[in-house]
Every structure is written in C-alpha cells, then in structure tokens.
Amino acid sequence: MLSKAMEKSLNEQIALEGYASFLYLSMASWCENQTLTGCAAFMFRQSEEERQHMLRIFHYINDVGEHALTPAVAQPPYEWPSIQVLLEQVYAHEQKVSASIDRLVAQSYEEKDHKTLSFLQWYVEEQREEETLMRTILDRIRLIGEGPQSLYYIDKEISAINKIQVAEKAAEGGA
Known about the structure:
Ferritin, mainly alpha
C-alpha cells in the first residue's frame, strides 16, 4: 500500500514520462522531415523507451493496490532551429526526469516506503545511463562541428549510437 502522497507523486512521474514519450515522438517526426533518418530512428526508440518507463510505474501503482492515472499530455514542441538544439533539449529533459526520480527516492526514504525505494532503484540507474548517453552525443556533435557536412556526420554518428543501444538492449533481454 502506498501513501496518498506517494501515489500522487508516482502518478505525476507517469505524466512526466508520458510527456517525454510524446516530446521524443515529436522530435522523431521533425528529424524525419529534415531527412535525418538516423536521428529519427534514435528518437523513435527513445520515445518508446519513455513509454515503457511510464507503463512500468503505471503497473507498479496498480500492483500495490492503488490507482494509476492516465495522464493528460500537453502538446510538445514540433519545430527546432537545429539538431544540436533538439539534442540539447533532450539532455535537459533527461536531467529534469533525473531530478524528479531523485525527489521520489527522497520521499521513499522519508516515508520509509522500502518497496517503492527498491522499485525506484532501476530508474536511478536508467537515468544515469540516459544522461551519460546524451552527454556523449553532445560531445561528439561538438567534435563534428557546424560545417556544411555536419548534419550528415551527426546523423551517421547518432545512427551508429542507436544501433549499439538496440544491440545492448537486445543482449539484456529488451529491458
């Protein structure tokens, strides 16, 4: 059983993860329209991953006998001035999600809710991985620079990173 405060906080996290899924889906669409197919594939995968994160919390709330709520999701942006700006916004959003998970962990400690604390440890590690991935991507984009062929190389690099991520997830059993 969850406290009402924890149930509310977890439902808020569902909404944040749902928004991330739609934000990344919108970003994938923008990338496709810019013919950045590698970036689009990466963002489509990120969108699905965020949806799975949302569902994982959704099921947890219901599993412990409370009521998960389907969130209303605000319309995310649909245009960006550049792929660099788009990816910087992904990193910023991942940092926002990490901060939210940290607040949930702190709340779990305060409430001595060991089941939820244990459940959230997966998210702590997942967010560390997500932030590391986005920092790596942004570092590589800085190395590529902004010359006339930079979009080609950025798209190619993100496509390669995406393929590695897909292979790693498959090796883990799709977790």
